[in-house]
Amino acid sequence: MAPLTLEQRDRRTAWMLLLPAVLLLLLVFAYPIGRAFWLSLFTKNLGTELQAVFSGFTNYGRLIGDGRFWQSFWATIVFTTSAVILELLLGLGIALVLNQKFFGRDVVRTIAILPWALPTALIGLAWAWIFNDQFGVVNDILLRLGLIRNGINWLGEPALAMVALVFADVWKTTPFISILLLAGLQSISPDLYEAYSIEGASPWQSFRRITLPLLMPQILIALLFRFAQSFGIFDLVAVMTGGGPGGATEVVSLYIYSTVMRYLDFGYGAALVVVTFSLLVIAVAIVSFLLSRSSHTKHSGAA
Amino acid sequence: MTTISNSQPIATSQPSRHKPKMTWRSILLPIAVVLVALFCLAPVLWQLQTSFKVNQDISAVPTVYFPTRYTLSHYIELFTRRPFWRYILNSAFVSITSTALSLAIGAPAAYALARLRPRGEKIVMAGILIVTLFPGILVFLGLLEIVQVLHLGNNYLSLIIPYTAINLPLTILVLRSFFQQLPKDLEDAARVDGYTIVQMLTHIVLPMTLPALVTTGILTFIFAWNEFIFALTFITREDLKTIPVAAAQLGGSSAFEIPFGPIAAATVLGTLPLVLLVLFFQRKIVQGLTAGAVKG
Amino acid sequence: MHDLHLHLLRHRRSLQRWGLFFGVFLGVILTSLLVMAQQPVTLNLLMTAPDAQPWKQGLIRDFETQNPRIRINIIEGPNATNLLEDLYTSAFILGDSPYDLINMDVIWTAKFASAGWLLDLTDRVSPEELQAFSPKDVEGGRYNDRLYRMPIRSDAGMLYYRKDLLQEAGLQPPETFADLIRISKTLQEKDAAQWGYIWQGRQYEGLVAMFIEVLEGFGGFWVNPDTLDVGLDRPEALQAIAFLKDTVKEGVSPPGVTTYQEEETRRLFQGGQAVFLRSWPYVWPLANQEGSPVKGKIAIQSMVHAPGQTGGSCLGGWGLGIAKSSRHPKEAWTAIQFFTSREAQKRFILNAGYVPSRRELFTDPEIVAKYGHYPQLLEVVDQAVLRPPIAQYAQVSDILQRYLSATLTHRLSPEQAMQSAAAETRRLLESGKQAA
Predict the structure, then answer these.
(1) Which chain C residues contact residue B148 at CB under 8 A?
(2) Please, which residues have CB within 8 angstroms of residue C418's CB and are 6 or more apart in sequence?
(3) Most exposed residue of B124, C38, C122, C416, measured as fewest CB within 10 angstroms of its CB?
């Protein structure tokens, strides 16, 4: 047997080092997803006394005619798009502010990442209290300002409950975006601005021509992360509205959860997982494509 | 790309530095700064105040902003009527264990990916990147079955294993970017001295990247402490629950009268460790997050 | 030689030590086994927090005095019953349910039984013994003709009305839906009360409980538990919806009724603002307590109906089953027998004011002396309708709640709503049927 070369040995060691991580990731991510694909072809629910019985694409047929799935899908889209857009705008604003020089900047930066680090479930409780219809501080402020006459039932009205959720999510995750964008801002060379301002450009022009294009990779990365995370939002909604009122804020993940944990409809739940997974993959592929294109143009533009 | 530290001087990056005529900046900037701070702090402070208010003030209309009386009764209630210490200990145990595990499993993997160019490196990296985007709800059905088969329900392992796995991608990405920045000469020298790769990792590389390990550990700790859906599903026994779940269920424990005071107190207790982490390690958190995300 | 001797000696000594160790070890195990055998068996029982106090002070104490070898450990769960159901479900799914006695709402029985979580009680109790209970209560404890739950506490929906207002106006209590609307309008015109009829219209389980009473009153049905036929898109269901919509359209019910749960409706009725209320027995003691504006002015009857039909009363209530995973099924059955016995129930009812599951207790002189309306309550309970005792009840109910609420709030026409609800329900039930 020929002795292994150093490189071959390195590669073998490399895989030994990688193996535990890869195995664990396969167990916790790949297996459950693969299992969902398989299980979605079976009916396994209380009607079959929890026995898995092969039923082909029956579950997918049910899904197409399931008004509640489409309602939850729509709620997820509304939540995700409005939350991510607002977070991006606000996050960019905060990043620009934090990038300025001012007294106590370190303290404010610390404060500005605080919401991101706190447990979402607990923050959801705090926001539910703030938006409480009887004793909530939001209603009190609006009443004192004379903007409303009677307290608003924030979490009891379908549209308003969604507004409250988006607000809470924006509060919670904007810091994540501003951290990423701030890092991006700091990596932009000041010389660029200097050169541009000598040419007599206004701050707005230099923002549009320099900051925004150079920040695009960070913006898209933030977008990708936030999109995937808010598409699967569970804890905030579960704690603040539980999907109510009347299912108006029931996002897909909440529906999957009750299909499995409340209805014990495992086969159908698996079909829901598969569909959600596929939609997420498609969306991520689109964003990644944009990401690669923008970094490409950025490089060619800089060159 | 090097990791960006926010301690680098920013003053030079201001486009308007040489323009004293821009006086509106000196008015708008302080306002913006105050608004940012207020926006981020207000809900937390409000919850903090609620937790010390007496019940009458909590349910007073109009709202009491400057209470004259304060009480500790909500905190006392948490500890006397519920095993709140247990919740805290459970959260701490699960978070610390899974953090240690994800560092122990993630650091070698990160090193392998950073330096050793294993076969299938690209596939592994792509897999890790995709996995960071996975919401927990997509895997919980499959994990539930694993938990059932292995009888892991109401066992810390049912949380520690998924938490470790969920934190692995971030751990690997952040550590990999740190390892790549290490000067390679040291490792080459160690090689000449006859160190094996494992020895090199444990004796040279890891001690040198201790700050990076701390950074990563803080992030994974935060994620584990905050996790909700698995903790909600795989634990039903009261004495094994973690703080987020236990606190969320305080609200559901009474249909008609929601115990706002104790909920606020539970929020404060559950967030306190993280607030402290942020206060002490703000820079590290920012560093780790940007390294993980930007490198990714 | 010498060495060997020493070695053997040492060896023997260590043997002795090991022997001693094993002896002590065995002794400890044996004694602990003995102690354990003599120690009381503990049965875990989960219930909502407000129920726990009366149980502890009443039934449990009586039981433990009579059965010193069995302890009952009450675990206080969440107050909302749907959260209690979720807690049971996750505990059972994880496979190590800590509960021995399962305290069940009537609508959970089929789910828990079909999932295989409950012990079959059929052979432990004779048909004669079961005759003492309301037949619907017993039926609610069956799944596939096997018995899994013993009724312990009954509950049924009914119509409360202001007898003082009706008497003053010289009106008879309503028989039909039309009567209800007519009387309401008459009294509203006289300014006797602001509203005529108050019901629960929010999207939640209470909505379907209220709805099946109206549906029964029109002679319709929701799901036939034997054939799994769905009757939601039949004319009777549309008539039922039309009646509910009419109450709001005619100004008999407040527009906000579609957001009300039990407590909102009780407060309105108890405040004297309404003539009729559809609710559960728990309202009676509250509306008759000191300081209540309607104290002594109310009466109950079963729900109104269409001409030629009989009124329905939605059956609620609690019962006990035994977890399959319980290690003490014998002791658990002893406890159930005690809790459902005549004497224990009577004492419990006298103390806590619950509605009995044994029929004879409704007319028991001592109980009637304390709760004068119980004989009438028996009439209501005798007209009880079950929500379909099918395995997938929770799912079926959520479908109906969604579409019912959508049409009551004018987001869908009644026809559209009921057709979709029926179609979804059929698809759901068929997926199980085909496979089975």
Answers:
(1) 93-95
(2) C232, C233, C237, C238, C241, C403, C407
(3) C38
By C-alpha distance, the chain B residue nearest A276 is B138
Which is more confident, B1 or B95? B95
Region of poorest pLDDT, from A184-198, B144-158, C118-132 = A184-198
pLDDT at B9: 41
Query: Given an 8 Å threshold on Cβ–Cβ distance, is B254 in contact with C49?
Result: yes
Torsion sign (Cα): C56, C58, C59, C60: positive
At C24 the pLDDT is 74
Task: Give per-residue pLDDT as tens, C371-406.
Answer: 989 999 999 998 899 999 999 999 999 999 999 999
Q: How far is C136 from chain B (nearest CA, A)?
A: 28
Return the bridge partners of C143, or none: C146
Cβ partners under 8 Å of residue C3, min gap 6: none
Identity of the residue numbered B152: L
Using the beta-carbon criterion (under 8 Å), do C115 and A264 form an inter-chain contact?
A: yes
CA distance C249 to C246: 5
Residue B175 and residue B166: Cα distance in Å, rounded? Answer: 15
What is the SS3 assignment for C255?
Answer: helix
For A220, the 3-state DSSP assignment is helix
Q: Which residue in this structure is represented by tokens 């509910």?
A: C244
Question: Pick from C332, C364, C333: which is nearest to C349 by CA?
Answer: C364
Please identify among residues 193-252 of chain A the ones whose CB lies closer than 8 Å to any CB of chain C.
244-247
* pLDDT value at C13 more than 90: no
What is residue C74's DSSP assignment?
A: E
Least CB–CB distance from A29: residue in B105, B139, B294: B139
- Beta-carbon count within 10 A of C408 CB: 22
- Dihedral sign computed on CA atoms, order C134, C282, C77, A267: positive
Q: Which residues of C touch A55 (CB under 8 A)?
A: 431, 434-435
Name the band, by pLDDT with cuts 50, 70 and 90, for residue A74: very high
The answer to whether A80 touches A230, Cβ cutoff 8 Å, is yes
Residue with tokens 């959860």: A257
Which residues are CB-contacts of A195 (< 8 A; sequence separation ≥ 6)?
none
What pLDDT digit, counting tens, does each position of A102-118 carry? Answer: 888 888 988 988 999 89
Q: Which residues in chain A are contacts of C400 at CB distance < 8 A?
A: none
B77 confidence band (pLDDT: 50, 70, 90) = confident
The interface residues of chain A toward chain B in range 164-193, judged by CB-CB distance below 8 A, are 171, 175-176, 179-180, 182-188, 190, 193
Judge contact between C75 and C44, C-beta under 8 A: yes
Chain B residue with the nearest C-alpha to that of C91: B236
Q: How far is CA C199 from CA C8, C295, C421, in A?
A: 91, 20, 22
Phi, then psi, of A14 in degrees rounded to 5: -55, -45
* Interchain proximity C93–B148, CB inside 8 Å: yes
The residue in chain C having the minimum alpha-carbon distance to the alpha carbon of residue B141 is C93
What is the tens place of the pLDDT at every residue in C316-374? 999 999 999 999 999 999 999 999 999 988 988 888 888 999 999 999 999 999 898 99
pLDDT at position B8 is 41
Buried/exposed code over A244-275 (b: 16+ C-beta within 10 A; e: otherwise): bbbbbbbbbbbbbbbbbbbbbbbbbbbbbbbb
Q: B80 to chain A, minimum CA–CA distance in Å? A: 20
C87/B151 Cβ within 8 A? no
CA B10 to chain CA mean position, Å? 27
d(CA C52, CA C65): 18
Interface pTM, i.e. ipTM:
0.88
* CB-based burial, A161-184: b 16+ in 10 Å, e otherwise: bbebbbbbbbbbbbbbbbbbbbbb
